[in-house]
Design brief:
Low-confidence stretches: none
Pfam families: SpoVAC_SpoVAEB
Structural class: mainly alpha
Helix content: over 70%
Protein name: Stage V sporulation protein AE
Order of helices and strands: HHHHHH
Mean pLDDT: 92
Strand content: under 5%
Keywords: Membrane, Transmembrane, Transmembrane helix
InterPro entries: Spore_V_AE, SpoVA
Shape: globular
Distance between the termini: 46 Å
């Protein structure tokens, strides 16, 4: 069990270090870094490499933003095999809708509870 925590920490930390290097060394904006990491997760899933990473690192691979790219491509490919080209469009939203909905709901609740500094 400790090995699972260790590898989740190492893999998740490595993804974060890559993002920090992109901002510090290459002077990318947070938006460019975010987009690059999402695309990297999508590419890794396209080559079938992200699911084994999730199996190995667990939350270390599912929590960082690269997992969002993985989810988009994974859902699109899964639905494309069932419904063709229409599945590509619907599959991305079907898989990621719960996470996006949760983010919107919790952001709204946070906005109701806390006062902005202004």
């Amino acid at each position: 069990m400790l090995a699972t925590f260790f590898w989740a920490f190492v893999v998740g930390g490595a993804i974060c270090v890559i993002g920090q290097i992109m901002m510090d060394v290459f002077k990318l904006t947070p938006a460019h870094t975010l987009s690059s990491l999402v695309v990297a997760g999508a590419i890794l899933d396209g080559f079938g490499l992200y699911e084994p990473l999730i199996a190995f690192a667990g939350a270390g691979a599912t929590i960082p933003i690269t997992s969002f790219g993985n989810s988009l491509v994974h859902g699109a490919l899964e639905e494309a095999s069932k419904h063709g080209i229409v599945g590509v469009l619907t599959g991305m939203f079907e898989v990621t809708s719960s996470g996006i909905s949760a983010a919107i709901i919790f952001a709204f609740i946070g906005a109701l509870i806390f006062k902005p500094k202004g």
